[in-house]
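Hey forum,

I'm writing up a methods section and want to include a predicted complex as supplementary material. The small molecule is fe (ii) ion. I've pasted the protein sequence and the SMILES. Can someone with a working setup run it? I'll credit the forum in the acknowledgements.
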Amino acid sequence: MNALPAHDRPALGLVDAAADPHLSGAFEPVVDEVELPGLTVIGELPVELNGMYVRNGPNPRFTPLGSYLYPIDGDGMVHRMQIADGTAAYSNRFVRTPAMDLEEQRGRALWPGIMSGGGLPDPADVGPDLAYVTRDIPDVNIVRHAGRILALAESANPFCLSPDVRTVGRELFDGAIPLGITAHPKIDPVTGEMFVFCYMEEPPYLTWSVLGPDGGVVRAPTPVSGVDTSFMIHDMALTSTAVVLFLAPLLIDVAAMMSGGSPLSWRPELGTRIAIIPRDGGAVRWVSDEAFWLWHTANAFDLDDGRLVVDYVQYDHPGMGLSTLPKTTSLIRATIDPGAGNVTRATVDEASIEFPRIDDRRMGQEHDWIAVAAETGRRELPHGTGDAIRWYRPSDGTMLQWTADDLLLGEPTFAARPGDPDPDHGWWMTFATEPNGSESWFLLVPAADPASGPVARVRIPVRVPLGLHGNWLPDEE
Ligand SMILES: [Fe+2]
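Reply by user p_vandermeer:
Happy to help. Structure tokens for the complex are below, copy them as they are.
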């Protein structure tokens, strides 16, 4: 990979954060790491709910250099709400990477944003060890598997965190998955296995792997046959028999970025292809469809006749300045017939929604409700937020909604009642932020009657910037 010579690189200024909707207001990054015990609870936190809700998201440590592309640029910050015996405590910590450590030493951003055309820093900027190295951005998601808490990046090495979400270090899985994993692994609740994939700029371009319930790698990175270039793939789906990957035509060209161009190109003429990868390692089957983009799946499951169903949020294109066409968003139920090589799609709802989640105890099996962050249209909102939560039951078309007055919301996450398989006895939770970013809330909504809104609101007297993905980590696991 050749970088631009120093004298050819553009002089980059700092991004105007106040003018960027993902760096201001409820998205404005925070710098301070705080610990706030004994928070005020309005309503009541169930005494049987004990654990922590952790959520990751982009939170640039310093004002970005050259460009800022939400949700791909940033530094990771994990926000943690501990719930114990009806009490609540909040804390937050950066996910610390070598690049962030060096930037803190210098007191400024050193790595240009990926759309800046600035390439990668050379030895004069960052010294020999980090020169020409892509910085880690473990800011997308946080999961726990086999007792290991991982802050996850976009198809790269995750970072391992301690239970109090301090950074332990880069996770290489004992060298067995050296290039990293998706930010959206899927954990099979029946087998305890964690399924992952990784895309890369060079052959084989796309691999998948499996970690066993003890965290050991039971399938080393396995190339997905039939892939001849590098596609950006943000999420995946899992059924009891297959891994499903959507190859939307968003191509990656790091060489173009290194020479001052865009690393991403949208090529709708290529269509979107769906790979159905048997979990037993059998031959990959492909289904071709018209071009669409998706950030996130909700879930997938097998039908008795060999077809499979995937619920996901579909876009006409990925945005990010890559298309001038208007963009619509829909919750889609796709039924894929790998034998016939076709897919049929049904629109569950056409609305501005994101962050679809289910009760993860149903991952890979037929689910009941899908929760999403939704925009009511009462105000203009930046991408990646909502002012309502919607719940869909695709099996009968039911839709419920709770509208959050003036608060801005992120991803809803399910928490089960301990020892109780009934999803109606669980709760949905999320962080919510005041529009001006002055303070924040942790909201707990009963799954039995979600449209009635929170049964408990925890006031957080600092800004929890709107972010990406999180999970409830119960104490007893
Ligand atoms: Fe995501």
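Some notes you might quote in the supplement: The mean pLDDT is 94. The pocket of fe (ii) ion is lined by residues 140, 183-184, 234-235, 295-296, 468-469 (CB under 6 Å).
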